[in-house]
Amino acid sequence: IEQFQGLNDRQREIINLLSKEGSLNPRHILAKLSKPIPERTLRYDLSTLKKMGILDKTGRANATLWFIRRV
User: Fold this and answer.
1) Is 27 helix (H, G, I), strand (E, B) or coil?
2) What span, in angstroms and rounded, lies between the C-alpha atoms of 45 and 51?
3) CB 4 within 8 A of CB 15
4) DSSP class per residue in 3-24
5) Is the Cα torsion angle 69, 41, 35, 3 positive or negative in sign?
6) What is the pTM of this model?
């Protein structure tokens, strides 16, 4: 759980969504968030969570799916 320290509420919500749904594309993540955010903000959060080793992705462009990285 140390891994989740320093995350903001939005990033925690993204992790919770993906843990429930399995994998989602960015458009579906945006639609399911409790508060609307710009797509650029979502891309930043997803990139940050990937760099932290929490999330990973598969596919490219419109076919990209994000998911929780299993250790």
Assistant:
1) helix
2) 10
3) yes
4) GGTT--HHHHHHHHHHHHHSEE
5) positive
6) 0.89
The rounded mean pLDDT for the chain is 93
Residue 3 and residue 24: Cα distance in Å, rounded?
A: 21
Strand partners, 24: 66
Write the pLDDT tens digit of every residue in 42-62.
Answer: 999 999 999 999 999 999 988
Task: Give 65's strand partners.
Answer: 58
Q: Do 34 and 10 meet the contact criterion of CB atoms below 8 Å apart?
A: no
As a whole number of Å, the CA-based R_g of the chain is 11
> What is the C-alpha to C-alpha distance for residues 41 and 14, in angstroms, rounded to an integer?
12
